[in-house]
Design a protein that fits this description.
The chain has about 290 residues and is an all-alpha fold. Helices cover about 70% and strands about 0% of the residues.
Amino acid sequence: MIATITKLTILAILLLATTSQASYRELFEKEFMSNPWGGNREAHSACVECHASEMMKAPMREPVFAWRDSWHAQNEVSCHDCHGGGPDDASMSMSHQRGFKGTPTLQEIPQFCGKCHLGILQNFLESGHGKALLETNSGPNCVTCHGSHDIKPASIDIINEQRCSQCHLYDRAMLMRQALFTIEKRLSGIQTNLNELRESGILLQTQRKDFFRAHSDFRTLFHTIDVNLVKEKTDEFMGRLDRIETDTRAAYVELAFRKNFSGYLLLLFLFLAFGTLMLIRTGENKK
C-alpha cells in the first residue's frame, strides 16, 4: 500500500514539474529574453549627455527632460533619429555630413516626422490640416497636436476643445471624436487584455501583431480628418477587432483552466504526501 501511494506521489510531482516547466519556459521568454540583466539602460548619446549637463542653460536642457518621459523614449527613439547627426561622437553630433538638422520650419515638420510615420504623412498632407499648412504656412502641424519632445501615445483625447478651437470651431472636431470613439474604446480594451495575458505568460504573438496593424491603420485613418471615411471604415475595423477579441477570450479560458488544473495538482500532491506520512507513522507505531 505504501509503495503504491509513494508511486502516486512521485507521479504527482512529475506532473507538477511538467506544468512548471512549461510555465518556466513562458516566463523565461517573457522576462529574461526581453530584458537585459541590468534592466533597461538609456543608450549612449552625445546629444543627451550634452543637453542634460549643468553647463547648458535651462531652455537647452528642457528638451531632454521632456523626451525622457515621452513615448519616443519608451520606444528607443532618440535625438538623432529625428535630428540626425552623430550620437556616438560629440564632435560629430551636429555634423551636417552626418545628416544633422536643427529645428525644422513649420512646413518641414510633417516631412520631419514622416520619416517614420509614412502612412500618416500621406494622409495628413491630403487632409484639410495638411493643405492649410502648405498653402498658408500657418496651419496645424504634427507638433500642434502631439507636442515636440514630450510626445505622448496617440489617443482620442488629443481631440479636445482647448486644442482644436485654437484654429477653428470645435463642432467639426467633435464630430470626428464621436466617429472615432467606438473603435478607440475597443482598441483600448483589447490592448489591456493582451497585456494582462502576456503578464500571465500567454504571449499571443500573432494576435499582438494583428492588433498592432489594426492600431496603426486606425491611427493612419485618423489623420485624414474625414468623418465620412472614418464612419465608412468602422465596420471593417470592427471585424478585425472581433477576430482578435475571440482569440483573447479563448486565451482567458485557457488561463483559467491552467490555474484550476495547477491548483488541483497541488491539492492532490498535498493529499498524497499527507497520506504517505500518516501511513509511515502508523507503520512505525506498530513496530
